[in-house]
Amino acid sequence: MSTIDVLKTLFLASGASWVLWALFGLSAVGVALTVERLIFFHELAGDLHSLANALDARLSKGEFRDAIADLDQSPAVAARVASAGLKLADRGPAAAEKAMESAAALERTRMERGLIYLATLGNNAPFLGLFGTVVGVIAAFEALGTGAGGPATTASAAAGAVASQAVMSSIAEALVSTAVGILVALPAVAANNYLQRRSTAILAATDVLKNLVLAYLSDSKLPASEAA
């Protein structure tokens, strides 16, 4: 038995239905991940306007320790980044800026966790669906080839017509795998693109508090003991 015959037997035995179940399972994981990331990003965004006003009020009075305590109570990314800078305020604006850049990089890693799954699902789900379609087409043509033998009698011709209709129906069913693959890929791609843009927007918003912190740290009249 040749390699092609072995592979054909394997494909015919496995069928294409498992591809649909695999796509449904992968899609369910993608939906769950998208919902989790949406909730997570909503918490990380925070009320930037309120945070900026509260931080400005603290820093204008030189209350650096209280400002850090307030920021540490917020789950917002901007608050975490600003807090990292204030904790190194006694080392100067340059050190505080580096600390905030490091904190922003860590937050980016947290926000992008799991997004590679959505990107991979969006890129490969159509190929998985196409694979299921190919397996289904192999089975359809195998059935057509099996029913094509025998003498050309009226009865066999009628049976062949029925077999041909069955084959066409099988091919139509096989194409469902490709359709499902595309259907799974589209929302995965859309979700990944949206979450990537959301992540970028949240990180860009940290500049509001970051620049506010650096502005106060650049003021040489602030007492160093309060910045510690």
Q: Which terms summarize this structure?
A:
single chain; disordered C terminus; rod-shaped
Tell me what the structure shows.
This protein has 228 residues and is mainly alpha-helical. The protein has one domain (3-227). The chain is 84% helix and 0% strand. It has helices spanning 3-14, 17-45, 48-60, 64-72, 77-86, 93-111, 115-146, 154-217, 224-227. The longest helix has 64 residues, at 154-217. It is rod-shaped, with a radius of gyration of 30 Å. 31% of the residues are buried.
Spell out the blueprint of helices and strands:
Elements: H1 3-14, H2 17-45, H3 48-60, H4 64-72, H5 77-86, H6 93-111, H7 115-146, H8 154-217, H9 224-227
Helix pairs in contact: 2-7, 2-8, 3-4, 3-8, 4-5, 5-6, 5-8, 6-8, 7-8
**Overall radius of gyration:** 30 Å
Distance between the termini: 79 Å
Taking pLDDT < 50 over at least 5 consecutive residues as the criterion, the unreliable ranges are 222-228
* Proportion of strand residues: under 5%
Secondary structure category = mainly alpha
Instruction: Give a count of the beta strands, DSSP E runs of length 2 or more.
Output: 0
Helix and strand element order: HHHHHHHHH
Overall form: rod-shaped
**How many helical elements?**
9
